[in-house]
């Protein structure tokens, strides 16, 4: 066994700086008193995984004995590029052939290398020009990276041409095979490409070809089924999508890959959504570190906690904000029309600066494809789940493409008489005006009928009631949500380096219904629980728009990647609301339902009106929220391995009634640094900021300043195994200042002296360990607590979130042999130290915690040709898990939790067919 200092020496010698940096981050967290859980259960296994992957990468690199892998030491002191290549050639025993204009050989540099590979040195000195290197013996030619052509034929096993098949190289170009079975793809970057040909009803075919500059590479595919069963041929690079997406969607505005973005960004791809049979956005949380559901409402709202802050309203769809004032009016997106979900940790001024500083998420909807496709699926499951989906699309002409997703769902919930019925219709069209300009129009209709989703009930003697107990009554009918979402996007490529995007979105939503709930009620000695009747009718109209410019340019030898944009929006909310307390108590031991058929007489809907008169002051409707903002960001490539990011956003924000809105003007800065010491590895540092408007006035009459959230973050990212596996580690500190606290000198007023700080550590692993084996794993440690308050009893209390979260999902698929097409998956989730808000009777009362959350999930799969089926089982152990928002200690230590039970063991069985 290596002793501690010997281990670090060995680690430093073999893993290079970014990997050692990642280990030190882990080691740092290990020395915090609250992190014993990491050390005992997760720290060293994660270190071992990191070390093994690094060892594999290093060993793989060292197996290549070409001249470019030769290691040399050289000192370059204020010399020209031309002289530098001469010195390097002498050290490495080689000669260079190049164009002076290509390399700008008179440019002067200074650098020092000790036992570094020739390939690494040339990459740092030459930047993108190094992509054009060709080595033959001891001669190294540097030329502009060229392009070639891929051409070939597609035919059926009977020798007939397979016309109308789509052939594409992902990220480059797609073409359709002509009726003669021929295709040509021009301007393909030179290099090696792994060609994957996948056809419905056929075994997957893989071919590797080398595309040479100014040459044509031929490839042919012979299909083993009849022409009617053919759909498409996909030629991809070695990075196939799977569980890893290294390029954020265009709606995230960034033109920089995830690896070079100084921020923790995790993309949940369609493959993960499909493998786990996720139905709505809230189901995704277990796939991202530092993200948990607090009080989930089926299909209605997300309730996300991100890095210890309640970030439910930091929500985007296709880059457009979709949050509403109340937070409930917009139904969760249904996964039937979702392509991916991007989670951005911390403030992200390039998207939206107003909101909680923990982070935000962006839902990317499915867009038209260039090939004809059609599929249908059916799912049945626990709680009378019946769900059907259809996805069809393709070209209507050479320039017009469409896609249509339709989903219908009839389902109950684990609550007695619960309902979660949904209908989603999502048509979208794209018109290519020319090869530089496209216009996309999209519409999402979501109709939801819910019963029992607000089922927050008290414990009795601190023991939860029966998991299926419902405080609601089916006689009241369902609460209805209807969302109409329209989206228009115009994208124009000015030239090879600059692109402008303009888009607008609009949401018209309605939320109407009655429900019974029991918040702040207690079960009496006879087992009776008082209920409250609520009537609500809210209408939201939200319109947003944005224009942004992406581009690249040079200032001397320094490369700039520019993002500049303006955006704004307006939200109008109005509502009717009424509440009746302590009606129709229900026996929690022998509940009777259907007795409230005449309960609607307690509230006269016709007497209600839109306005403040019948609303609690905190509801704040009718109201108008609007904002206008301008932002600018520059990714400055100072050296091939060093990037500086500088940006800022200025926002004018107005909220409140039209007569007296609260207005704020806020500038939020952003600065980041990315170091890339190894290929496919980056180390980053980030500072960014957000704000959140706060209404009201101090005793002096002065308006309150916005709450500000400051984020300091460090991280390490790496891609492994040919970019099939992605890992990232980050540590952060988020400080929320200017929080409102009670004014000790003026009862009933507030002062801005509060502060909450969240510090933590996160790690994520996504991707393929082999062609058969995929993984999604994450761990987070989040220490979020009050650090300043006028009430000394509140200092040190924690925010509502688990301190430790751990999730893993492992999937294996058999690719050949007798069991080809069979797959299996196993996952588990564990959340520890789940603190909740505590109302104390005495100052010495401790802050309460919920029991640890534990769940184990599994799945089995089978696919052959156009047919696939899957069975997913969640919470196999049938553990009684629940969420809670607070512990009411008004009765002292014997107070009660107010909880929302979560489903027990449940399954989903799906069948899908592609046509």
Automatic annotation (TrEMBL):
Write out the entry's keywords from A to Z: Cell outer membrane, Ion transport, Iron, Iron transport, Membrane, Signal, TonB box, Transmembrane, Transmembrane beta strand, Transmembrane helix, Transport
For the TonB-dependent receptor-like beta-barrel domain, which residue ranges apply? Answer: 473-876
Respond yes or no to whether keyword Transport is given for this record: yes
Q: Which SUPFAM superfamilies match?
A: Porins (SSF56935), Starch-binding domain-like (SSF49452)
Q: Which CDD domains match?
A: ligand_gated_channel
Q: Where are the transmembrane segments?
A: 41-59
Q: Listed GO cellular component terms?
A: cell outer membrane
The record's subcellular locations are: Cell outer membrane
Q: Which InterPro entries does the record associate with it?
A: Beta-barrel_TonB, Beta-barrel_TonB_sf, Carb-bd-like_fold, Plug_dom, Plug_dom_sf, TonB-dep_rcpt-like
What is one Pfam family matched by this protein? Plug
List each copy of the TonB-dependent receptor plug domain by range: 259-359
Q: How does it sit in the membrane?
A: Multi-pass membrane protein
In terms of superkingdom, the source organism counts as: Bacteria
GO molecular function term, any single one? siderophore uptake transmembrane transporter activity
Family as reported in the entry's similarity comment: Belongs to the TonB-dependent receptor family.
Identify the PANTHER family for this entry.
FERRICHROME IRON RECEPTOR-RELATED, FERRICHROME OUTER MEMBRANE TRANSPORTER_PHAGE RECEPTOR
The molecule here is called TonB-dependent siderophore receptor
The species this protein belongs to is Pararcticibacter amylolyticus
């Amino acid at each position: 066994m290596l002793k501690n200092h010997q281990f670090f020496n060995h680690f430093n010698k073999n893993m290079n700086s970014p990997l050692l940096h990642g280990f030190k981050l882990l080691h740092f967290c290990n020395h915090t008193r609250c992190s014993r859980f990491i050390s005992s259960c997760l720290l060293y296994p994660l270190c071992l995984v990191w070390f093994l992957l690094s060892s594999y990468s290093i060993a793989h690199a060292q197996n290549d004995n070409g001249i470019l892998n030769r290691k040399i030491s050289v000192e370059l002191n204020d010399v020209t590029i031309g002289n530098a290549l001469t010195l390097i050639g002498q050290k490495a025993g080689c000669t260079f052939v190049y164009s002076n204009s290509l390399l700008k050989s008179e440019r002067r540099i200074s650098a020092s290398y000790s036992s570094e590979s020739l390939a690494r040195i040339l990459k740092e000195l030459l930047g993108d020009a190094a992509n054009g290197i060709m080595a033959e013996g001891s001669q190294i030619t540097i030329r502009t990276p060229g392009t070639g052509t891929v051409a070939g034929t597609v035919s059926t096993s009977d020798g007939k041409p397979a016309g109308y098949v789509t052939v594409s190289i992902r990220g480059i170009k797609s073409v359709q095979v002509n009726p003669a079975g021929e295709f040509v793809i021009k301007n393909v970057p030179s290099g090696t490409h792994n060609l994957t040909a996948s056809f419905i009803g056929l075994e997957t075919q893989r071919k590797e070809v080398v595309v040479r500059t100014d040459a044509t590479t031929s490839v042919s595919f012979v299909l083993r089924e009849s022409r009617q069963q053919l759909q498409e041929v996909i030629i991809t690079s070695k990075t196939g999508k799977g569980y890893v997406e290294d390029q954020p969607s265009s709606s995230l505005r960034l033109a920089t890959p995830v690896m070079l973005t100084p921020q923790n960004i995790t993309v949940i791809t369609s493959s993960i959504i499909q493998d786990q049979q996720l139905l709505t956005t809230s189901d995704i949380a277990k796939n991202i570190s530092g993200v948990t559901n607090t009080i989930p409402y089926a299909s209605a709202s997300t309730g996300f906690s991100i890095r210890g802050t309640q970030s439910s309203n930091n929500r985007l769809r296709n880059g457009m904000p979709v949050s509403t004032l109340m937070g409930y009016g917009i139904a969760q997106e249904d996964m039937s029309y979702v392509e991916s979900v991007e989670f951005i940790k911390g403030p992200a001024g390039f998207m939206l600066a107003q909101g909680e500083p923990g982070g935000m998420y962006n839902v990317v909807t499915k867009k038209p494809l260039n090939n004809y496709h059609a599929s249908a699926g059916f799912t049945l499951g626990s709680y009378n789940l019946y769900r059907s989906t259809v996805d069809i699309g393709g070209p209507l002409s050479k320039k017009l493409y469409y896609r249509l997703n339709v989903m219908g769902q009839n389902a109950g919930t684990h609550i007695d008489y619960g309902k979660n019925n949904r209908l989603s219709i999502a048509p979208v069209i794209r018109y290519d005006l020319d090869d530089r300009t496209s216009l996309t129009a999209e519409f999402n209709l979501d109709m939801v009928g819910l019963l029992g989703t607000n089922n927050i009930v008290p414990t009795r003697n601190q023991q939860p009631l029966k998991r299926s107990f419902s405080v609601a009554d089916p006689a009241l009918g369902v609460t209805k949500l209807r969302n109409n979402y329209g989206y228009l996007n115009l994208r124009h490529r000015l030239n090879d380096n600059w692109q402008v995007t303009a888009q607008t979105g609009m949401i018209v939503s309605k939320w109407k219904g009655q429900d019974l709930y029991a918040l702040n009620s207690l079960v009496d000695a006879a087992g009776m629980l008082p209920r409250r009747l609520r009537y609500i009718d809210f209408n939201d109209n939200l319109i947003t728009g944005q224009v942004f410019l992406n581009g690249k340019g040079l200032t001397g030898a320094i490369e700039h990647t520019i993002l500049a944009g303006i955006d704004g929006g307006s939200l109008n909310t109005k509502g009717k609301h009424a509440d009746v307390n302590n009606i129709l108590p229900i026996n929690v031991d022998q509940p009777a339902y259907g007795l409230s058929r005449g309960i609607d007489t307690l509230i006269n809907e016709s007497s209600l009106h839109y306005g403040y008169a019948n609303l609690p002051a905190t509801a704040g409707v009718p109201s108008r929220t609007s904002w206008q903002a301008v932002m600018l960001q520059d990714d400055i490539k100072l050296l091939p391995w060093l990037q500086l990011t500088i940006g800022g956003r200025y926002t004018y924000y107005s909220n409140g009634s039209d007569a007296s809105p609260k207005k704020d003007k806020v500038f939020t800065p952003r600065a980041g640094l990315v170091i890339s010491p190894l290929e496919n590895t980056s180390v980053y540092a980030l500072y960014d900021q957000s704000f959140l408007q706060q209404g009201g006035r101090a005793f002096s009459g002065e308006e309150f300043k916005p709450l500000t959230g400051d984020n300091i973050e460090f991280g390490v990212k790496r891609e492994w195994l040919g970019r099939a596996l992605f890992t990232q580690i980050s540590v952060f500190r988020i400080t929320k200042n200017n929080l409102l606290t009670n004014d000790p000198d003026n009862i009933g007023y507030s002062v801005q002296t509060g502060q909450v700080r969240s510090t933590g550590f996160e790690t994520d692993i996504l991707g393929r360990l082999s062609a058969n084996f995929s993984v999604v794993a994450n761990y987070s440690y989040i220490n979020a607590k009050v650090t300043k308050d006028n009430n000394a009893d509140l200092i040190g209390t924690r925010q509502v979130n688990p301190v430790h979260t751990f999730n893993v999902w492992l999937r294996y698929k058999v690719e050949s042999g007798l069991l080809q097409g069979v797959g299996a998956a196993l996952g588990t989730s564990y959340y520890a130290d789940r603190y909740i808000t505590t109302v104390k009777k005495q100052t010495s009362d401790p802050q309460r915690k919920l029991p640890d959350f534990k769940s184990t999930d599994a799945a089995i799969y089978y696919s052959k040709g156009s047919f696939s089926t899957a069975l997913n089982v969640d919470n196999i152990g049938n553990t009684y898990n629940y969420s809670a928002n607070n512990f009411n200690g008004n009765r002292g230590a014997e107070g009660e939790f107010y909880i929302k039970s979560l489903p027990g063991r449940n399954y989903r069985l799906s069948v899908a067919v592609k046509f």
